[in-house]
Fold these 2 entries.
Entry 1:
Amino acid sequence: MAELNLLAGPYAMPLAALAAVLLDRLFGEVRRFHPLVGFGALAAAIEKRLNRRTIAGGVLGWALAVLPWVALALALRPLAPFAVDVLLLYFSLGARSLCEHAEAVARPLSEGRLDEARQRVGWIVSRDTAALDEAGVAKAGVESVLENGNDAIFGALFWFALLGGPGALLFRLANTLDAMWGYRTERYNLYGRWAARVDDALNWLPARLTALSYALLGRWRDALACWRTQAPGWESPNAGPVMAAGAGSLGVQCGGAAIYHGREEIRPPLGCGPAPVAADLGRAITLIRRSLWLWLAVLFLIGALHA
């Protein structure tokens, strides 16, 4: 009975979060029949039918793709709250996958296999990577790790802490649709605008808490200064604080020129110090993992205060 009371009391939420994180650490993402893969196929089918390049069509498509699953999660949760919360957060997390992708870039880069490192980093970034030098590959990898720390881990944890498993699911599905539809291209500029705005709204506070976590666990003075001065220069209201604080915390210089779809874009600077090298990818992974344990510690502290 004591165990059951513990799973239904003030420690239920942090224990569920810890269980989901451990499941992700042990097993990573589901290799076959991952729910997000099925969701992506459903979203693509909805977009194919509804995309008439209007905002209204995008709102309807977003609602049809997301709301039924969140409603189902809310309906199932009272039947087994702890189990449902653990499974939904586990499916929403991507900590192990993020670290594995980063390590797959760092390993060949540190061993001088630049072509392989370019190919690997091309799997996790949207910029063109064919002509990147060693510093360019390391920079792209560090930026991706820092930004996706929020998208793949901390955003889901934040909404889980507020709304349980259904909150984590809402965040993950909204973030997935932004990744699929949130582009300023002719096809998605209007249709994907709602998906992009919802993702911005859901990410606003988690991104700043992620940036604060990065700052607290590294060179905090540099991190806070970079966040304050560099983040406003970024078009994304959430990626700017996360990457600026993260790069400042690591003491590396990111940002600058990058090629997207064949065109060079000059982006504002991120962080301070020398250009990143292969070893800095490992340091970025360590920063992500330490931030994750910090968040779990805060969740248990909140549970203790409620108890």
Note: The longest strand covers residues 263-271.
Entry 2:
Amino acid sequence: MELVSFLDHRKKSTVYKAKKGDKEAFLSLIDENRLNIYRVARGILKNEEDIKDAIQNTIIKAFENMCTLKKDEYFKTWLIRILINECNEILRKDKRSASLEKNMGDVTERYIDSYENMDLIQAINSLSEELRVTITLFYFDDIPVKTISEILETSEGTVKARLSRARAKLKEILGEDAWS
């Protein structure tokens, strides 16, 4: 128990330092959350360049607005919320540019993804955005339902319903055998 308390205090002090403008402390926090933010961005966006842009914009906005974080223990939740907003902004821009491209002719862009042949990744990517994000946060980032509801600004019941719908769809896509 003492180790957990020590680690919590260390993390809080790192957030505190970052809020006071300590760049090294901020970079340390970003490094601790690097895999989480990549997974979330990957869950929302398909294109690696878009994922990189979303992460870069998130880091810049988080650094610029670090002093607005009210509770140090919610740094990860706050960071992921910024990331989701950035991903959604990229999706909105892509939608607008896609309609422009459609008017200009059939232009298709293909990107190479080292995970594209994995059945589970393909199945998750076929889900709607809200199901994809929810399942990514819950299963890949091990974020509890309560925290997901805060990040997505929705009720815990909605998060649970989305998880249930996502599991059912994945079971349907991957087949019964995949879950045995």
Note: The mean pLDDT is 81.
